[in-house]
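Structure ticket #2291
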Amino acid sequence: MALRNAPFWLLVLLAVALRDSCDGASSHSLKYFFTGISEPSQGQPHFVTVGYVDDQLFSYYDSNSQREQPRVSWMEKVGKEDPQYWDRNTQMARGIEQIFRAGLETLRNRYNQSEGLHTLQRMYGCELRRDGRKGGFEQHGYDGRTFITFDKETLAWVAPDPQAQISQRKWDGLPGYNQYWKGYLEETCIEWLEKFLSYGNETLLRTETPVVTVSSRTEVEGGMETHVCRVHGFYPREIDASWTRDGEVWLQDTFHGFLAPNADGTYHYWISVQIDPKERGRYRCHVEHDGLQDPLDLELKEPTDSKSNLWFIIIGCVVAALVVVGVFAGIAGIVIFIKRHQDGYRAASTSDKGSSSSDQGSNQAI
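Resolution: structure written out below.
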């Protein structure tokens, strides 16, 4: 893939950007990311578009290949039902690529910047949450910062600085444009998400039971114990994992790791707690997941080796997450923008005519 040689720090940020917190994660989402780069490194594309169902990359386009292509076997069903699907989306992606190239030049002039490396990014889409609620968003970023955001409740664009307000006035002034996007995010996008879930139901709607283990060590100073509860190999990603004391959730002296994908499409997560060894019997690692018939509560055991490699286990979890990032190397450039604002982005994008956008008219120039 064209971005295999992307800088390592971008890959690290990508792993963070794609992860969700364990609390309040959406049940299913459709995500699209668009990235334009003014001066990419040698061999890297000027423009990249990727699509995700949940955390599974299913479509990809870049300015080097000039072709939008499937990235999972279940997307072959789309081409069989609609033979023009990939040709149509390729043409759309090429059109958006030209818009991005012009947008980069426009914004460089607006901000009175010299030539050099600049990034223009966009993401929009929808989600189906576990409780039945639906969500959606549309947002643009420039050089790693939010440029303009669509508020579908007020039917208005929100711009944080004067340069972005130029685009705000332009887009708010387009007849029917904001109403179109509201309908797209709340209806059309959801319809495509449901369709993609039906295509990939064998993988996207499966259940994998988590494997839960507890490791521990005694601190050299102070005599306190640190216990790590590691949950591995589960799917879907929604999981409730916590430390409890006397049956109640215990947050004091706890540390939460990232919920991150494994190479096989499952997820892993870990939490640690520091306790007084005299109170060890009061604590449990509590886990609830769709793959478990009943909640799981693991007791803590006395550390067998005060010089155990507990922290190597923790580091191993982090390294494993970074290794998985290689799977997503093709979209590394998007994370400059996403990392800084990920808390507001729990949604995704798709199309009523194809995977990249609903139609060319919806992709307005900056």
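Closing remark: Residues 169 and 253 are 49 Å apart (CA to CA).
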